[in-house]
Design a protein that fits this description.
There is one protein chain. The chain is mainly alpha-helical and 327 residues long. The chain has one domain. Helices cover 77% and strands 0% of the residues. It has 14 helices and no strands. The N terminus is likely disordered. One of its GO terms (cellular component) is membrane.
C-alpha cells in the first residue's frame, strides 16, 4: 500500500495565478488596436476625424446651453429652437464643395430611392429637433443632456434590428449602464425642477427627451442603412453629402412648421432674445457648464448618473471598436 506524499508547506503558500485577461492586458490590446487602426488610415483621415469630434464637442453642448438660456430669457417658441438647429446647413455645403475640388471627385448622383431616404431622414430630424426643443423648455440643461444620452441605447437597438450590427458584451453593458443612469435621474426628479415648471410639464419634458433620443437613435440606424443598401460605401464625402441633404430637408420641414404655427412672424422679437443669449453664453461643456453657468441643481444622484453615463459611453465605444476589429 503506497502512502500519499506529504504536502510541503511551500505549496500551501503558492501565489495566486494572474488572470490572462487582466486590466493591463486589456489596455495593451486596446493600444495595439489603436496603433493598427492608425496605420491603416492616411493622415488626412485622422485630421478630419479630430476636427469632426471637436465640432461635435462644441456644437452639441453649445446648442443645449443656448436653448436653455433662451427659455430663461423669456423665449417661448419651440419651432424657432428647432429651426436654428438646422439653419446652419449651408456651412456644411460650403465645406463640401472644396472637398470635391481637392479630392477630384464628383457629387454622388441622386436617384429616387436615395432622394426619398433623404426626405424621410429630414422629416425625422425635424421632428427630433422639435422634441428636444420641448424637452429643454421644461428640463434643466444638465438633466436634459443626461437623459439625451439614452440615444446611444436606441442607436444600439435600432442598429441591431435594422442594420444587423453585431452586439457584444461591452455594448450590452453600455445599454444597461446608461439605462440605470436614466433611472437614477428619474428617481431624483424632485431635486432639480424649476419653480416655474409644474409636475406635468417636467414629466412631459422627460418624455419628450426620451422620444427625441429614440428618434436620434433611429436616424443613426437609418443613415447607416442608407450607406449599406443605397450608397454601398462610407467615406467623408458621402457622410457630408448626407448631412447636407438631410439638414436641408429638415430645414424646409421646420420652416413650414414655423409658418403654419405663426412663429415666423415673431422672428424679430425672438432674434432680440437670441442676441442676449449669445452674449451670455459661449461654448461650454453641457452638463458641467450647465451647473456652473446656469446654477442647475447638482445632487448626488445626478453626479452618480453622470459618472455612470460616462462609463456607459466608454463601454459602448470599446465594444464597437472591438466589433469592427473582429469584422
Amino acid at each position: 500500500m503506497t502512502s500519499l506524499p506529504l504536502i510541503q508547506p511551500e505549496s500551501m503558500e503558492a501565489e495566486p495565478s494572474i488572470p490572462s485577461d487582466s486590466l493591463r492586458a486589456q489596455i495593451s490590446k486596446f493600444s495595439t488596436m489603436l496603433t493598427e487602426a492608425h496605420k491603416r488610415k492616411p493622415i488626412h483621415y485622422w485630421i478630419l476625424l479630430v476636427l469632426s469630434i471637436l465640432a461635435m464637442l462644441v456644437a452639441f453642448p453649445a446648442s443645449s446651453i443656448l436653448s436653455r438660456v433662451y427659455y430663461d430669457n423669456g423665449g417661448q417658441s419651440k419651432w424657432i429652437i428647432s429651426w436654428v438647429a438646422v439653419a446652419g446647413w449651408p456651412l456644411t455645403a460650403l465645406i463640401l464643395f472644396p472637398v470635391y475640388f481637392i479630392s477630384k471627385t464628383f457629387p454622388t448622383p441622386l436617384n429616387l430611392k436615395l432622394s426619398l431616404s433623404y426626405i424621410v431622414l429630414g422629416f425625422l430630424s425635424a421632428a427630433d429637433n422639435l422634441m428636444y426643443a420641448y424637452a429643454y423648455a421644461y428640463l434643466p440643461a444638465s438633466t436634459a443632456s443626461l437623459v439625451a444620452s439614452s440615444s446611444l441605447v436606441f442607436s444600439a437597438l435600432f442598429g441591431y434590428f435594422l442594420v444587423k450590427n453585431k452586439v457584444n458584451a461591452s455594448i450590452v453593458n453600455s445599454v444597461f449602464v446608461i439605462t440605470a443612469a436614466l433611472t437614477i435621474i428619474a428617481l431624483d426628479s424632485s431635486s432639480d425642477r424649476y419653480p416655474s415648471i409644474s409636475d406635468s410639464e417636467y414629466i412631459m419634458g422627460f418624455v419628450w427627451d426620451v422620444l427625441g433620443s429614440a428618434f436620434h437613435g433611429l436616424i443613426f440606424a437609418l443613415s447607416e442603412l442608407v450607406f449599406v443598401k443605397l450608397l454601398g460605401r462610407r467615406s467623408f464625402i458621402v457622410v457630408l453629402e448626407q448631412q447636407v441633404m438631410v439638414s436641408l430637408f429638415a430645414f424646409l420641414f421646420t420652416t413650414v412648421g414655423m409658418i403654419v404655427s405663426g412663429d415666423f412672424q415673431g422672428m424679430a422679437h425672438e432674434a432680440t432674445t437670441f442676441e442676449g443669449v449669445l452674449n451670455a453664453v459661449r461654448t461650454p461643456i453641457t452638463s458641467i457648464a450647465a451647473v456652473i453657468l446656469l446654477k442647475d441643481p447638482m445632487s448626488g444622484f445626478k453626479i452618480l448618473s453622470l459618472v455612470i453615463t460616462f462609463w456607459g459611453f466608454g463601454s459602448y465605444i470599446y465594444g464597437s471598436s472591438m466589433g469592427e476589429k473582429s469584422s
